[in-house]
């Protein structure tokens, strides 16, 4: 997957001296400063690119606000961005999704997280010097974007789409979209290495849940954080027909959408 949206620690380590490869740490500032970070990384905390008030675009921060974040971090539109966190990549994946939505062509997710990197590569507490730049976002058109809203999701329920619920089993049994399959986003992560499982294993795991490249796939969770990780993984595996329900179950329930509850009988 090193040539795709997901890159390995070794891939990144060999490119840290490239001025156009920019590393983004999305942890809280106290973690970035107090625990340490990857060499040359800039800190753009998760809360800074998530805005609960953006009712039209879910929790995306808005194109101008995101462009300001990147510009203040010294990142240009032509740079390659590699994002990471210390939570198996779930917060960093949200950054990747956001950057893609606002037109950044080359943005990657570090396979693993800070702890995975720290097992075999150096970290630092030095804060890099940042020279701010002007960054202009180029948001995707609705036709280009994987993001879908309530009406599109309701329409997809009438088709043979696979609705993938990336939450935990307890949440799934409390309420879920009709016919959804449970696929906890953490199933793709190896707990020991903190990195993604091998590609063949991922494909078999997804297929066991009926999540295959030939199907139309709709991802949702509660507030579109966890599906960001699953979306990036599917993209890395070459899945193309993947829809990202930004409003997720929060919006679905607010619109009195139909739900199911209770355990699913095993076949």
Automatic annotation (TrEMBL):
Protein name per UniProt = Rhodanese domain protein
Q: Where is the Rhodanese domain?
A: 17-126, 157-261
- Please name the taxonomic classification of the source: Archaea, Methanobacteriati, Methanobacteriota, Stenosarchaea group, Halobacteria
From which source organism is this entry?
Natrinema versiforme JCM 10478
Give one Pfam hit by family name.
Rhodanese
Q: Which PROSITE patterns match?
A: RHODANESE_3 (PS50206)
Which keywords, in A-to-Z order, does the entry hold? Repeat
Superkingdom of the organism of origin: Archaea
Task: Spell out the SMART domains in the cross-references.
Answer: RHOD
Q: Where is this region: Disordered?
A: 119-146
Q: Does the keyword Repeat apply?
A: yes
Please list the coiled coil stretches: none
* PANTHER family for the chain: THIOSULFATE SULFURTRANSFERASE (PTHR43855)
């Amino acid at each position: 997957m090193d040539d795709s949206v997901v890159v390995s620690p070794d891939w990144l380590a060999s490119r840290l001296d490239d001025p156009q490869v920019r590393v983004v740490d999305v942890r809280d500032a106290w973690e970035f400063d107090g625990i340490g970070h990857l060499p040359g990384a800039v800190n753009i905390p998760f809360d800074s690119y998530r805005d609960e008030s953006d009712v039209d675009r879910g929790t995306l921060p808005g194109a101008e606000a995101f462009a300001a974040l990147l510009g203040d971090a010294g990142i240009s539109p032509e740079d390659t961005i590699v994002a990471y966190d210390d939570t198996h990549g779930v917060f960093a994946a949200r950054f990747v999704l956001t950057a893609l939505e606002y037109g950044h062509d080359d943005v990657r997710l570090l396979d693993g997280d800070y702890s995975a990197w720290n097992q075999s590569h150096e970290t630092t507490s030095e804060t890099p010097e940042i020279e701010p730049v002007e960054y202009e976002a180029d948001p995707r058109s609705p036709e280009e974007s994987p993001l879908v809203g309530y009406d599109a999701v309701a329409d997809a329920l009438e088709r043979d789409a696979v609705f993938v619920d990336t939450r935990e089993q307890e949440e799934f049994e409390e309420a879920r979209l009709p016919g959804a399959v449970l696929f906890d986003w953490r199933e793709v992560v190896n707990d020991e290495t903190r990195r993604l499982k091998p590609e063949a294993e991922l494909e078999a795991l997804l297929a066991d849940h009926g999540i295959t490249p030939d199907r139309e796939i709709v991802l949702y969770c509660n507030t579109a954080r966890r599906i960001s990780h699953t979306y990036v993984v599917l993209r890395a595996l070459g899945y193309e027909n993947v829809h990202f329900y930004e409003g997720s179950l929060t919006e679905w329930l607010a619109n009195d959408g139909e739900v199911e509850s209770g355990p699913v009988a095993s076949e």
